[in-house]
Specification:
Layout (H helix, E strand, L loop, with lengths): L12 E7 L10 H18 L2 E7 L3 E7 L5 H19 L12 E5 L2 H17 L14 H6 L9 H4 L6 H14 L1
Helix pairs in contact: 1-2
Length: 180
């Protein structure tokens, strides 16, 4: 039975998650993380989409993005395949790195877009890897606190809801952490 085609239309936004096969680590060192971000940037340049947030965990990755004219399946196939080729060569492995297809949730409203950004940036805190999201170097959170886009990240869509004030965004993300 063929797989169900994912919903896509130009301008569709998604919360993407790709997990390591059998929950194995997909990043062993900082070089791996740099290479993954490089592959993500190459895909962005090739397929013209916007990345709103990301977080590279040990055995999975979260990406919040908005497509333009390229289907999400094409974008994710390129990223996951390019990174798998690198990873398998480096560690002299063969076969699947990622567990099945990536998971995607269509983001259909502004409030959910904000919630996804917050969720992604809090992921290392919830995993008890850090106390505050700013302490985790492998997410886009620093771009938001600096209030500026990077080569990879587009902060405007999210920060517009906070009057382009990084401190307001930080309060939104860290609100529950501040109460404890």
């Amino acid at each position: 039975m063929p797989r169900k085609k994912r919903i896509w239309y130009p301008g569709a936004s998604y919360h993407i998650m790709s997990r390591g096969n059998r929950k194995q680590n997909i990043f062993h060192d900082d070089e791996d993380r740099y290479i993954y971000l490089t592959k993500l940037l190459q895909a962005k340049e090739r397929f013209d989409f916007s990345v709103y947030s990301y977080c590279l965990m040990t055995n999975h990755v979260h990406i919040q993005l908005q497509t333009n004219e390229t289907e999400i399946s094409t974008i994710m196939h390129y990223i996951n395949m390019a990174y798998t080729v690198y990873f398998n060569r480096k560690y002299e492995l063969v076969g699947h790195l990622f567990q099945g297809r990536y998971r995607s949730e269509l983001i259909e409203n502004a409030m959910y877009n904000l919630e996804v950004s917050r969720y992604i940036h809090l992921n290392p805190v919830k995993a008890e890897m850090v106390t505050l999201p700013i302490e985790y170097p492998w997410s886009s959170y620093r771009n938001y606190l600096e209030g500026e886009d990077g080569e990879l990240i587009s902060t405007n869509t999210i920060l517009q809801f906070f009057q382009h004030n990084p401190s307001l965004y930080q309060m939104y993300v860290e609100y529950d952490l501040l109460e404890t």
